[in-house]
């Protein structure tokens, strides 16, 4: 997949606007049951209306950082230090019940395997409508109408037909669009996409990335993208944080990091991704 960091401008709102971050993480530490730290002092900011990428190999701590933001860490894993703020709200200090209420209404997420987040015995439309009833408070008929509208907005053809289909009748790309529709039902401020395109083929991946780009541009959504693939980050994000062994080893504007990586691990990642067009990305960036 050959991409250009300049395409990330499609998701920028005001390029030179620097404001208070929507999401701020300071000194985040996450440990497993035996006390081993798996996230070590992570600092990161996600400006409102921006698209920020977290990249690194499996086990680097990027997904656990996002799970900590969402309040969805696995059993036996917990936040042991630092703070996470969404706007003026300190998330780490919130009771679990209030934290749960924020998911879907203020922040939401889509993950790698959409089928695992859907009930196989209920149509996708009915599941989307149920989210609208619970999170938005719509009546049954209004929820159905809004669900069809959302399916259409996600680029799904014949949305009325898709509404009546079961998860096993849809492709992986279609299922991911359904999950994105569910995630944005209550118009959250922040959407976290955790390896959301990893299981998709290249063509479908590009379509889903374009959909996320459109959501940022047209709805003012703030996006945090988690991926092991620098090409995905280059296409979608204007800022990147590089993770390794539970810590951020490099951060900065995506174009700068791709053209002039400062950390040996970042240089290694770029070498590993040359076959996806990173060399072309660096050449195009240098001409701007």
From TrEMBL:
Q: Does the keyword Cytoplasm apply?
A: no
Mind naming one GO cellular-component term on file for this protein? plasma membrane
Lineage, highest ranks first = Bacteria, Bacillati, Actinomycetota, Actinomycetes, Streptosporangiales
For this UniProt record, the keywords arranged alphabetically read as follows: ATP-binding, Cell membrane, Membrane, Nucleotide-binding, Transport
Enumerate the subcellular locations listed in this protein's record, separating them with semicolons: Cell membrane
**Entry membrane topology:** Peripheral membrane protein
Q: What is this protein called?
A: Peptide/nickel transport system ATP-binding protein
What family does this belong to? Belongs to the ABC transporter superfamily.
Q: Could you name the domain of life of the organism this protein comes from?
A: Bacteria
Q: Which InterPro entries match?
A: AAA+_ATPase, ABC_Ni/Peptide_Import, ABC_transporter-like_ATP-bd, ABC_transporter-like_CS, P-loop_NTPase
Q: Which CDD domains match?
A: ABC_NikE_OppD_transporters (cd03257)
Q: Report whether Zinc-finger shows up as a keyword of the record.
A: no
User: What broad class describes the main subcellular location of this protein?
Assistant: membrane
Q: Name one Pfam family in it.
A: ABC_tran
What is the species listed in this Swiss-Prot or TrEMBL entry? Answer: Nonomuraea fuscirosea
GO MF annotation list: ATP binding; ATP hydrolysis activity
Query: Where does the ABC transporter domain start and stop, copy by copy?
Result: 23-270
């Amino acid at each position: 997949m050959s991409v250009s960091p300049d395409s990330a401008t499609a998701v920028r709102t005001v390029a030179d606007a620097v404001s208070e971050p929507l999401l701020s993480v300071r000194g985040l530490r996450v440990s497993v049951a035996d006390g081993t730290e798996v996230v070590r002092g992570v600092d990161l900011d996600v400006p409102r209306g921006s698209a920020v990428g977290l990249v690194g190999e499996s086990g680097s701590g990027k997904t656990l950082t996002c799970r900590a933001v969402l309040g969805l860490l696995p059993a036996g894993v917990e936040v042991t230090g630092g703070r996470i703020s969404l706007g003026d709200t300190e998330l780490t200090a919130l009771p679990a019940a209030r934290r749960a209420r924020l998911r879907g209404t203020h922040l939401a997420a889509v993950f790698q395997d959409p089928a695992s987040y859907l009930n196989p015995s209920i149509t996708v439309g009915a599941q989307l409508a149920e989210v609208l009833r619970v999170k938005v408070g719509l009546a049954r008929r209004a929820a159905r109408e809004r669900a069809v509208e959302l399916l259409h907005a996600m680029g799904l053809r014949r949305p009325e037909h898709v509404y009546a289909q079961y998860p096993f009748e849809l492709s992986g790309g279609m299922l991911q669009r359904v999950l994105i529709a569910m995630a944005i039902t209550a118009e959250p401020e922040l959407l976290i996409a955790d390896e959301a395109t990893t299981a998709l083929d290249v063509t479908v991946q590009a379509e889903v990335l374009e959909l996320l780009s459109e959501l940022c541009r047209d709805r003012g959504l703030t996006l945090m993208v988690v991926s092991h693939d620098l090409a995905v980050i280059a296409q979608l994000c204007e800022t990147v944080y590089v993770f390794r062994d539970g810590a951020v080893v490099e951060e900065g504007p995506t174009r700068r990091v791709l053209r002039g990586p400062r950390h040996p691990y970042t240089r290694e990642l770029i070498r590993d991704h040359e076959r996806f067009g990173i060399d072309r990305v660096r050449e195009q960036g240098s001409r701007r």
